[in-house]
Design brief:
With about 525 residues, the chain is of the alpha/beta class. Among the domains are: about 140 residues, Alpha-Beta Horseshoe (Leucine-rich repeat, LRR (right-handed beta-alpha superhelix)); about 100 residues, no CATH class. The chain is built from 20 helices and 13 strands. It has a 13-stranded parallel β-sheet with strand order 1-2-3-4-5-6-7-8-9-10-11-12-13. Strand 4, helix 9 and strand 5 form a beta-alpha-beta unit. Helix 3 runs antiparallel to helix 4. The radius of gyration is 26 Å and the shape is globular. The protein starts with 6 loop residues before the first helix and ends with a helix.
């Protein structure tokens, strides 16, 4: 699919394609053409031109998402291209904007917004090398620190110290880049480039470091907070966090696995949970909440009822919810507004079929994403599922891997899914009849890949043929055995893998020491 380009955009491409000539001629370019030239340079991956455009940026703001998004001159959205050449040129150009003392333009730049960049699985840039969120955090922090060192050593124009540019960014902090980010945030007042953290993802950090970094980011500006995987935050730490820090603008909160475990609850824990619910209720902007892999049986109402605004996104996958929890969720207050819902890991047909379909009917007019992985949905439940999904005409994404469905049932279901006009992404399970007879669900990791791959390929072809015959080439169907693509996990998997090996080794050493003492 080719996107139409205006004559202006074609001219801009021709201009920036000769990097040497374009760089020499920038001084004669009208200010209002800089955004057009920037998008054309980004499309052609002209790193040197991008650098010089930003080094001499003549406007008050630089909003990456808007500049790369759909424009009248070129409709294609380039904000999902996290091209390493382009992004590095942007950030070094920003540093040199501060240092450039001979720029022909008056320095007007006040706000740089880098939050519109989207990390996706398939990159269309020619260099094929991406710069993810973690690497952007690392590079910006490094450039801020280097800039300060240079300004302290060099004889700079006094005007340089008066430059103050807010750089809005989604930070991603792990053990490996922690020190660098801390230094950049600590010296924010003295640095002309002032990091403003709008979203924070923290992984592989000790609790002490997590609490320190979150205070440095200025929580009053945070809109999104993701505490994931190897940050061992439990309920008492969460209470401490919410008691000591106020998040007035927070719209999205992700908590790590095992934050809650009601099976071990005492009376004190019940009070703690009530306090946490009240604190969450004070977050008047909160519309997205993820609490997967916690044990929350019978406590959803206690946690969510204090909320003053309804949730648009809720992930309670593998949270051992009971009928009372599902009944509360089916209540119209939240259900009528839910655009994304993840109920994976619950035996929906067995435990609460009618309540689930009540929930689905209430959110059907707005629901965009539904995830029902490992929910024990079998062939006998497909008609009921189709009935529940029929009103969900705005559904764009449906994920249901890990369910014991036969190839025949999948074909029947796919014929129906073609009728959902906005559905674009489907993640379906390996058919039950591709596995050896007697396989039990949920399938353990060791058995996950032990299926008839040739038979699976044949079934997948038949399913794609159903889409083709229904003129639904716009729908993508896949079976990601080990879960959907996660850009953040992909980028830091080496560090996380090393951490897991280290943890396993330490546990083994402790066990050996204890065993030797017993001997």
């Amino acid at each position: 699919r080719t996107t139409m380009k205006s004559l202006r955009f074609i001219s801009a491409e021709a201009f920036v394609s000769n990097a040497e000539l374009a760089r020499k001629s920038l001084g004669a370019v009208a200010h209002d053409l800089f955004p057009l030239l920037f998008k054309a340079s980004y499309l052609l991956e002209q790193g040197e031109v991008i650098h010089d455009l930003i080094e001499n940026w003549p406007l008050f703001d630089f909003n990456m998402g808007k500049l790369l998004g759909a424009t009248l001159d070129y409709q294609e959205d380039l904000s999902h291209r996290t091209c390493s050449v382009c992004l590095e040129s942007c950030l070094t150009g920003l540093r040199d904007y501060v240092l450039n003392q001979s720029s022909p333009y008056m320095k007007k730049l006040r706000v740089v917004d880098l939050t519109g960049i989207k990390d996706v699985e398939v990159q269309l840039c020619k260099c094929k090398k991406t710069m993810g969120r973690w690497a952007r955090t690392q590079l910006l922090s490094k450039l801020c620190s280097e800039l300060l060192v240079y300004l302290q050593k060099a004889e700079c124009n006094p005007g340089t110290f008066e430059i103050s540019i807010k750089v809005l960014i989604d930070l991603f902090v792990t053990e490996r880049n922690y020190e660098l980010v801390v230094q950049a945030l600590l010296k924010k007042c003295s640095c002309p480039l002032k990091i403003c953290c709008v979203a924070l993802r923290s992984d592989n950090l000790t609790l002490q470091k997590f609490f320190y970094i979150i205070k440095l980011t200025d929580p009053s500006l945070l809109r999104k907070l993701e505490i994931v995987h190897n940050v061992h935050l439990e309920m008492e730490h969460l209470e401490m966090l919410l008691n000591s820090i106020h998040f007035p603008l927070l719209m999205s909160l992700t908590l790590p696995a095992r934050t809650f475990n009601v099976r071990r609850f005492t009376a004190t824990d019940e009070q703690m949970l009530t306090n946490i619910g009240e604190k969450i209720g004070e977050m008047t902007q909160l519309t997205e909440l993820s609490m997967s892999f916690s044990i929350l049986t019978g406590r959803i109402q206690k946690l969510l009822s204090p909320l003053k605004t309804p949730l648009k996104m809720l992930d309670v996958s593998n949270c051992s919810l009971n009928h009372a929890d599902m009944a509360f969720l089916a209540n119209r207050f939240h259900a009528n507004h839910l655009e994304a819902l993840d109920l994976s890991g619950h035996d929906i047909p067995e435990l609460y079929p009618s309540t689930f379909f009540k929930l689905l009917s209430h959110c059907s007019s707005v629901l965009r994403s539904l995830t029902l992985e490992d929910c024990n949905i079998q062939d006998t439940h497909v008609n009921m599922l189709i009935l529940g999904l029929s009103p969900c005409q705005k559904l764009q994404e449906f994920k249901f891997i890990g369910n014991p469905l036969s190839s025949q049932a999948l074909k029947y279901l796919f014929t129906f899914l073609c009728e959902l006009p906005m559905l674009k992404n489907v993640e379906f399970p390996v058919p039950r009849d591709c596995y050896p007879t007697g396989i039990t669900y949920p399938i353990d990791d060791a058995s996950l890949c032990r299926f008839d791959h040739q038979k699976y390929e044949r079934v997948a072809e038949e399913l794609n043929l159903i889409l083709l015959q229904a003129n639904r080439e716009d729908m993508k169907a896949s079976t990601p055995l080990f879960g959907s693509y996660d850009a953040a996990v992909q980028e830091t998997n080496n560090e996380l893998g090393a951490y897991l090996i280290k943890s396993f080794k330490e546990t083994l050493e402790k066990f050996t020491t204890s065993f030797n003492k017993m001997s």
